[in-house]
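Please review this one.

:::
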Amino acid sequence: MINRYSQTETFELPFSATVISDREVEYHLVRPQPLSSLSILLNENNTVLPISVEYRSQATDEQWLPLAKTVIYQMEDNRASEPLALDQSLVQAIRIKAISGSWGELPPTVTGKRSQVDVIFNAQGSPPYALAWGSHLASSASIDAKQLVPASELPADGLSGLPQAYLAEPFILGGEERLKATDPAQSSSQWQTWLLWGMLILGVLGLGFIVLKLAREVMGSKDNK
């Protein structure tokens, strides 16, 4: 399988917004996406606003990473600030803070764009063909284009001249559980980590109990004197 990024075909992915305050808002995608650009549009005309933009590759990441400090604007003649270039960075969450001023009643609208990915595969047997994706346990099966399609077999216009397969109705194979499945080694590692934390917490509690007991004994001996 070959992944080939196209510079002309893109898909827009709208973020859902969670307003923290009138100067801070967080945005989320359902799943991480390799974004080529990020559009931040104000919802009020004739507005100029300096902002800071941070992101998380995974919604579960603890730390926000700096993305940009920029100025966004929206004018009545539909002129607006340019999107931020991301170069296929993996993004699931965005946090925007107004450096000075506010965006008004409605927070900015954030839309991510990702480049179209053309998947070239070796068709075996008769159609229809099933393309399975999304398993957390799956390993990469990509190979170099020259290995999959020898130069002697390429059409005159190259890879773009290969026959196209068209999308039929999608169907679910493993569902959400398969997307988040972990292998036995990873599950064992997670279990051992939780066990270690449990032992550390019990040790701290036990040490605290001993210190408290000694403190009471010392105070009791002083009272007897």
Observations:
- The chain has two domains: 1-181, 183-225.
- DSSP finds three helices and seven strands in the chain.
